[in-house]
Amino acid sequence: MKFSEQWLREWVSPQLGVQALADQITMAGLEVDAIEPVAALFSGVVIAEVVAKVPHPDADKLNVCQVLDGSGEPVQVVCGAANVAVGQKVPFARVGAVLPGDFTIRQAKLRGVESRGMICSASELGLEEETSPGILELPLEAPAGEDFRAWMGLDDNTIEVDLTPNRGDCLSLKGLAREVGVLNRLPVVSPSVMPVPATHDDTFPVRVEDAERCPRYIGRLIKGVDVTTATPLWMVERLRRSGVRSIDPVVDITNYVMLELGQPLHAFDRANLHDGVVVRLAREGERLVLLDGQEITLSASTLVIADERGPLAIAGVMGGEDSGVSTATQDIFLEAAYFSPLAVAGQARAYGLHTDASHRFERGVDPQLTVDAIERATALLLQITGGEPGPLVDATSQAQLPGEREVTLRSSRLEQALVKALPEEEVTDILVRLGMTVDITESGWQARVPSWRFDISIEEDLIEEIARIHGYNRLPVRRPSARLALRPDHEARTPLARLRRQMVARGYQEAVTYSFVAPELQQAMLPDVVSPRLANPISSDLSVMRASLFPGLVRALEHNLNRQQSRVRLFEAGLVFRGDLDDLQQTPMLGALVCGSREPEGWAGGREKVDFFDLKGDLESLIAMGGEADAWRFEPGEHPSLHPGQSARILYRGEAVGWIGALHPGVKAALGLKTDALLFEVRQDALVRGVLPAFVPLSRHPEVRRDLAFLIKEEQPVQALLDCVREKAGQWLEELRLFDVYQGKGVTEGYKSIALGLTWQHPSRTLNDEEINQLVDAIVAESHQHLGAELRG
Questions:
Q1: Which residues form a coiled coil (predicted)?
Q2: 492, pLDDT greater than 90
Q3: Which of 76, 160, 357, 382 allows an S-S link to 34, with CB 3.0 to 4.6 Å?
Q4: CB neighbour class for 254 (10 Å; exposed up to 12, middle 13-18, buried from 19)
Q5: What stretches of 290-359 adopt beta strand conformation (E)?
Q6: Distance of alpha carbon 212 from its chain centroid, rounded?
Q7: With bands split at pLDDT 50, 70 and 90, how would you rate the model's confidence at 406?
């Protein structure tokens, strides 16, 4: 909403500068977006009268004019505008005048003829952005010799306000002036609106078929208007300063009244109306050519203004081209209506439109404003275009109009919300100045809300209004009252955010998949699992709650593969759901999926595919963050989603907490995947647990290392050998490292060679060979006894 500061001050003029006024409006909840001058700076321009005009002797398109600029003697000026004429009043830049762009007028000769000044167009004065085709013609009553800038009131500002959707009552000068008056305790002087007496008895029939969407429709037939009359300059300027372009006097007047009062109006050419106006819903397939030339097909949910032949306009949005006013129009049918916000909401957007009328009707227009608006527009039409008004045709359904609202405000609730007790007189004064009728009760106030404040319906709305008018900056600052003791920080826990960052650091991208999956996908991957099924799913593909992260990750893999992404590394943290609704278990899990090459494509990297141990290494990097890697175990196991020979159960402190392995060939075939993939899924509560690191003094004595290579059966897990070695290695074992696994020449078929590096260190003395040899002998004997292991060589 744009408005002129001068126009506003004709209604109400507080003793505030423009910036202070804008700040006050903003603090009242009507945010000011911009303050801009209505015209560029210029000086030395006066009003002059053209008293003589002769063609230039040496130029066909130039004229030599004599103008009276108030200085006493006619001034000769050469002008190239085609519309210059004797008797005109024009803006005249004297010699020495400075025009926008720092352009100084000097005395000069044009084709040998002296010119002392310049007759100006609107664009040359910065009043129009586009280049004007001719000079700016002023009203004949403009006083010659007077400063043009002062006479036009160009030392003015345009204020642009960004209104919230609930404040449609401020989409007019009347609404904004009402707000400024309330904020400054000043009376508002509005233009007088008097009923215009009819000079003839002719009417045009009106029938409203949908009173719920259009409770009030008022029309008036005005005969003998002169549409060729020029719109007065004062009205053109006010429209321009409000961001509206002048079109013709009838359209300009309807726009002016809309800006002034907030009620959109529309004028039809009576000659193009047939039998009567009907307010109804459109019939499917009806077509309408709008004023902007766009032809649209109307839907059955669109409210239209029609006659007996078809639609004339989209109600509350835009009129039709065929029934619009033109220069040939002699009689007009002027309408003003109240359309319910729900009837107009979304209609403009449905047709790719947004108009000033729809902007207002969608937010709500005062239902009691309709008569005043049509009377005001009629008076302006008669003043500018002439004509003979007929009586009003009023089609109103009182039962469908918004009723009077009463809202109770308790003084105790007001004090609690504002943290301040306001005097009863001040609260009453604020409510009355807002246009409400107020009764004081034992508990507070009973307020009857005015028709233009459709945003006030409950007690909290009144509290907001009082706080707004009283001033938010005058309310006390209340800090929250709460116990702010620090919560204990579980230092042994690894935050989930750190686990996420670790996965990202290892080249993964986080996926967020739906908590619902397709039943056939879950059945293929987890045939025996039980999870809740939705009674009313959004889609059949999202009808059961996931019992694992695997289905969502596999579906994400499929999505990426279909888009030529051959290397995929995804992880996800989320809940899985198992059991019936009566005994539902919701478990936070962290899962990951990899496929494709081990390293990104590049000249320095190989093209080996990612394998089980790559994924296991990524998981072990998460496990290591808890500082308790020895508490974790990987044991062979079978999972319906994983390859029988490449899957393992994950144990933490002896408890099963997850799975890792390659995607099952049967699942791949069922989903049509042509690439291998590996997955893991682990309970979050196990991953985030850990131990606090403790400092151990560094030993100053040397380490002792022994390398042992054991021959064990191929199917024997290495972990069993590690457990056996660790058990007999004694308390001074610092490190046990697996550094080689070998099968081939020199190793019996069916066996494998496992090479271990053992490092001992005593904190207070040097270990001797005898002690180490005893420990090695014990390790070899224990390994042979329990695992059948033999030292190699």
A1: none
A2: no
A3: 160
A4: buried
A5: 295-297, 303-307, 310-314, 318-319, 332-338
A6: 32
A7: very high
Nearest Cα to Cα of residue 553 among 620, 613, 674, 641 = 641
Using the 8-state DSSP alphabet, how is residue 583 labeled?
G
Report whether 101 contacts 141 (CB < 8 A): no
Question: Residue 392's domain is classified under what CATH number?
Answer: 3.50.40.10
What string of DSSP letters covers 23-47?
Answer: HHHHHTT-EEEEEEESS---EEEEE
Q: Are 549 and 589 in contact (CB under 8 A)?
A: yes
Q: Mind listing the pLDDT tens digit for each residue in 604-643?
A: 877 889 999 999 999 999 999 998 988 999 999 999 999 9
- Determine the Cα angle at 86 with ends 84 and 89, to 5°: 75
Distance, CA of 317 to CA of 337 (rounded, Å): 12
Domain count across the chain? 6
| Residue 490 placed within a domain | no
Q: What is the pLDDT of residue 697?
A: 87
Which residue spans within 282-428 are E strands per DSSP?
287-289, 295-297, 303-307, 310-314, 318-319, 332-338, 388-389, 393-396, 405-410
- Residue 566 counted as domain residue: yes
Neighbour count for residue 340 (Cβ, 10 Å) = 22
Q: Phi and psi dihedrals of 373, rounded to 5?
A: -65, -45
Residue numbers of the domain that contains 762:
704-791
- Please report which confidence band the pLDDT of residue 284 belongs to, taking 50, 70 and 90 as the band edges: confident
Give a yes or no: residue 478 inside a domain: no
User: What's the token pair of residue 584?
Assistant: 């539902």
Residue type, 467: A
| 642 and 768 both lie in a single domain | no
Residues 666, 672, 678: CA angle, nearest 5 degrees: 60
Same domain, 81 and 17: no
Q: What is the pLDDT of residue 1?
A: 86
Please name the residue that has the structure tokens 């013609």: 137
Cα–Cα dist 710/405, whole Å: 91
pLDDT tens-digit readout, 560-612: 999 999 999 999 999 999 998 888 999 999 999 999 999 988 888 778 899 99
Average pLDDT, integer, range 263-286: 93
DSSP 127-157: S-SSPPSS--PBPTTSPTTSBHHHHHT-S-E
CB 366 within 8 A of CB 263: yes
What is the rounded CA–CA span in Å between residue 615 and residue 571?
11
Alpha-carbon distance 620 to 625, whole Å?
9
Q: Given pLDDT bands bounded at 50, 70 and 90, which one contains residue 120? A: very high
Maximum distance among all alpha carbons in the chain? 131
* Domain limit, last residue, from 111, 128, 152: 152
Q: What is the CATH classification number for the domain harbouring 417?
A: 3.30.56.10
Q: Hey, which residues does 222 pair with through a beta bridge? A: 332, 389
Distance CA 395, CA 56 (A): 62
Does 464 appear as a known binding residue? yes
Residue type at 545?
M
Strands 157-162 and 31-37 come out as antiparallel
Q: Hey, what long-range contacts does 600-606 have (CB within 8 A, 24 or more apart)?
A: 600/507, 600/567, 601/567
CA 573/CA 506 separation, integer angstroms: 16
On the CB side of 101, CA atoms within 13 Å amount to 7
Do both 605 and 514 map to the same domain? yes
377 in Cβ contact with 392 (< 8 Å) = no
The residue out of 627, 653, 688 marking a domain boundary is: 688
442 known ligand binder: no
Q: What is the mean pLDDT of residues 315-324?
A: 92
Mean pLDDT calculated for residue range 232-239: 93
DSSP helix/strand/coil, 166: coil
